[in-house]
Amino acid sequence: MNRRIGMSTLLFRSEPRVVSAAAVVAKNENEGSFGGRFDLVLEDDKFGEDSFERAECKMLCTAARLAAERSGLRMQHIRAMLAGDLLNQLITANYAARELGIPYLGLYGACSTMAESLLLGSMLVDGGYCSPVLCCASSHFSTAERQYRFPLEMGTTAPPTAQHTVTGAGAILLSDTETPQPVFSHIVVTAATIGRVIDLGITDMNNMGAAMAPACCDTILAHLEDTGYDADEFDLFVSGDLGAFGSEMLLDLAKKARLDLEGRYLDCGASIYRAEQNFSCGGSGAGCSSVVLASELLGRIERGAVRRMLFLATGALMSPTAGMQGESIPGIAHAVVLERRD
Amino acid sequence: MNRRIGMSTLLFRSEPRVVSAAAVVAKNENEGSFGGRFDLVLEDDKFGEDSFERAECKMLCTAARLAAERSGLRMQHIRAMLAGDLLNQLITANYAARELGIPYLGLYGACSTMAESLLLGSMLVDGGYCSPVLCCASSHFSTAERQYRFPLEMGTTAPPTAQHTVTGAGAILLSDTETPQPVFSHIVVTAATIGRVIDLGITDMNNMGAAMAPACCDTILAHLEDTGYDADEFDLFVSGDLGAFGSEMLLDLAKKARLDLEGRYLDCGASIYRAEQNFSCGGSGAGCSSVVLASELLGRIERGAVRRMLFLATGALMSPTAGMQGESIPGIAHAVVLERRD
Predict the structure, then answer these.
(1) Of A116, A150, B124, B165, whose Cβ has the fewest other Cβ atoms within 10 Å?
(2) Closest by alpha carbon to B26, among B2, B7, B9, B42?
(3) Helix, strand or coil for residue A337?
(4) What are the CA-CA distances from residue A318 to residues A88, A291, A332, B143, B177 (Å)?
(5) Which of B175, B200, B230 is the endpoint of a domain?
(6) B positions 212-241 inside 8 Å of A (CB)
C-alpha cells in the first residue's frame, strides 16, 4: 500500500494485541440483548455516589481497573490512558485519570471516542512508544440528559427518532506483548482510519442517527479506498450508535455508493436494548459502542465467529450553544480494524 | 534509553520537522510583549462574525490555512488536523474541521491542548502513519469568560490572581519531509512526555496558575528522569499559562525538588501581556501557549537563540458543574522537546 495524498488510514504493522477489556453498565443495559455478558452491573445508577457525574467517573475507573486486573496487571504497569466522555470539560475522564494516577490523554469525539481512543492507543503501542495502554470511553443517561437536553425532573417524552444514552463505561487494554494472564489471545488491531467532520444540515437534537450516518459512510468508503479491501473481506461492519433510523440511513447511503453491507452489519445502538424495553431508536452515547465492543464483539472475534471487523464509533458533535446560534449538528466517525489471529 | 515501568516519555527517532506555523490574535495580544510577531491581528474580536464562538472558529480556520499556505501546501495536502479548544463539545475545533474538510482528531486538554496536539501529531509523523499534520489550539476571551465565569455584560472585576483568556489561535505544521517552501528549516520534535492529572485541592476558578503548577513540575521531573537529561541541557523551559503567581509557584516547587529553572524559564501567560496592560497575573487559555509558540518561540529556535526547549502546555481541568458539586480543579501538563538542527 502506498501513501498518497488524502489518505487517512494508518497501518499497524506490528499488530498491537487486545489483551483484556471490561464493561461496566447499569440495569437497563444488562436487561438488553447482551445481558449477562458485561463485567459489572450497577445496582443503582448512582453507584453509591452523591451525584450521577461522580457515579459515571466511578464507572470509568472501575472499568479501567477491571481491564488491568483481569489481564494480571496493576494500574502502575499501565503506561497511558486515552479516554473521553460526553460531559463538558471531559470531567468523567479527567477525574478518573486523577484517581488512577497514570499518564493520560483526554479526547473529545462525542460518541466516536472509543474508536479515536483505540486508533491513538494502537499507534502508541505499534510505534513502540509505550505499552500497555488503556483505551476508554463512557456515558451516563442521567448526566448526558441534563447536560444536552432537559432536566430529568421534567419527565419529557422522547420523540420516535430519539435514542437513549447508554449508562456504561468500557475499557480495552492494548499491549505489544502478552500480559501475565491475557483475557484474549487472538485479537489484534491492524489498521485505523481518521474520520472527517461531515454535516448534512441536521438540527434536531433528537435525531442524532441522521447526523452521524453520512460521516459513518464517508469513513467506510475512505477506509476501503485507502486499503483496497472489498466489503466482503470483512465479516462485520460495526457502527457505534446510529440507532434504528440512522442504521437504515447508513445502509441506504452505502447502497448509493455501490456498497452492500446487508447481512454483515451491526449497530451497537440499535442492538443494545430489546424492542420491549421501548427505547425508541435504541442506545447512544460514548459508552454504547465501548461496552458492546468490550463484551459481545471482542468475544465474537476471540472465539472466531468474526475474523475481521471494521469497528466505527460514530459521533454527533452536538452542542447546545451552537444549536442556539442556529448551527447544525456535524458528525464524525473513526474506524479501527480488529482481526483474529490464530 | 530503556523502556521501564512508569515511563511516560516518547522518543521521536525520525525527528519530525516543524515546517510552518501561524498565529492569529486580537488587538490586546498584539499590544503585548510579542506584538508585531503574529501573522494576523483581528480588527475586532468578532472577526466579522455574528457571535464570538463563530469568530473563534474563523480564527482557528485562518491559522490552519495560513500555516498550510505559508509552507506552500494546500489544505488537501494535509493528512490530519489535531485540535482542541476550551469550549463545551469542542465547538471551535469541530466546526473548523468541518470547514477545512480534512481528517480530524478532537482533543480536550484545556490549556494543555497545544502540547497534547504536538505530542500526538509528532507520533503520527514519526511513526510513518501520516504526514504532514496540523496541530492546533485556540481560545477566545469572550467565549471562555461567559462559559466558565460570568456573562461579560456583568462587568465583573477580576481578582488579583486572575488571568485573562488570550484571544488567539495557533497552528503548527509537522512533516516528515521538507515542504515546497518551509517557513522553518531547523526545528524538529525529538521527544514528548504524557502528563498525569495532579490535584492539590485548589477550588478557586480565578487561581488557575496554582492548580496547574504542580502538574507542570510533575511532568518536568518525569521528563528529566525518563530521558536522563539534566536541566542545564535545555536552553529554555516553557510553561503554557501559569501566570505570574503560578510561575513563582512552579519555580518554588522545582527548587524543592532540587531543580533550578531560574534564568532558563519562560511562562507564555506571564509574558504575553505588558505590565501596563493590567491583566492581573497575565494570559491564559489554550490559545496563549499556542500563539506564543507559533510566533516568538519557534522564531527563537529557528534563528538559534534557543537550541533545546522543553515546551509544556499546562491545563486546569476546571468544570463549572464539578465545581458546583464541590470538586477541586485538577491540573495536567504535557511536554514536547523542540530542538534546533543545523
Answers:
(1) A150
(2) B42
(3) strand
(4) 12, 22, 11, 17, 37
(5) B175
(6) none
Q: Which of B119, B219, B317 to mutate to test the interface with A (most CBs of A within 10 A)?
A: B317
Instruction: For residues B150 and B221, state if they share a domain.
Output: no
Check pLDDT > 70 for residue A100.
yes
pLDDT of res. A298 = 98
| B205 in any annotated domain | yes
Pair (B152, B96) in one structural domain:
yes
Query: B5 falls in which pLDDT band (50, 70, 90)?
Result: very low
DSSP letter assigned to residue B107 = B
Domain of residue A113: give its range: 10-175
Query: pTM of this prediction?
Result: 0.97
| Chain A residues whose beta carbon lies within 8 Å of the beta carbon of residue B115 | none
- Using a pLDDT cut of 70, give the percent of chain A over it: 98
Same domain, B170 and B83: yes
Residue B1 lies in a domain: no
Confidence of residue A149 (pLDDT cuts 50, 70, 90): confident
Give the pLDDT score at A153: 85
* Shortest alpha-carbon distance between residue B73 and chain A (Å): 12
- DSSP for B117-145, written as a single string: HHHHHHHHHHTTS--SEEEEEEE-HHHHH
* pLDDT range class, residue B154, cuts 50, 70, 90: confident
Residues of chain B with Cβ-Cβ distance to A98 below 8 Å are: 197-199, 330
Model confidence at B155, pLDDT cuts 50, 70, 90, reads: confident
B292-319 tens-digit pLDDT: 999 999 999 999 999 999 999 999 999 9
On chain B, the residues whose CB falls within 8 A of the CB of A78 are none
Q: Where are the alpha helices (DSSP H) in chain A?
A: 27-30, 52-70, 91-100, 113-126, 141-148, 208-227, 243-256, 268-272, 286-292, 298-302, 320-324
ipTM rounded to 2 decimals: 0.96
Q: Indicate the DSSP class of residue B294.
A: I
Interface contact flag, B196 A84, Cβ < 8 Å: no
Q: Which of B5, B76, B90 sits opposite A6 (nearest CB)?
A: B76
Indicate the pLDDT class of residue A157, thresholds 50, 70 and 90.
confident
Number of domains in chain A: 2
Q: Do A321 and B53 touch (CB under 8 A)?
A: yes
Measured between CB atoms, does B46 come within 8 Å of chain A?
Answer: no
* Among B residues 118-157, those touching chain A with beta carbons less than 8 Å apart: 119-120, 123-124, 126-127, 129-130, 147
- Answer whether residue A338 shows pLDDT above 80: yes
pLDDT of residue B1: 32
| Nearest Cα residue in chain B from A96 | B197
- Which one of A14, A87, A99, A105 would you mutate to disrupt binding with B, by most B Cβ within 10 Å of its Cβ? A105
Cβ neighbours of A319 in B, within 8 Å = 87-89, 91, 94
pLDDT of residue B149: 85
Q: Which of B129, B133, B198, B319 to mutate to test the interface with A (most CBs of A within 10 A)?
A: B129
- Same domain for B255 and B162: no
CB of B196 within 8 Å of a chain A CB? The answer is: yes
Per-residue cell: A308: 475481521
Domain assignment present for residue A253? The answer is: yes
Region of B155 on the Ramachandran plot (φ > 0 left; ψ -120 to 50 alpha; else beta): left
pLDDT digits (tens, 9 = 90+) for B259-294: 999 999 999 999 999 999 999 899 999 999 999 999
Answer whether B106's CB lies under 8 Å from B81's CB. Answer: no
Query: Please, what is the average pLDDT of chain A?
Result: 95
Q: Are residues A90 and A204 in the same domain?
A: no
How far is residue B134's CA from residue B82's CA, in Å, rounded to a whole number?
6
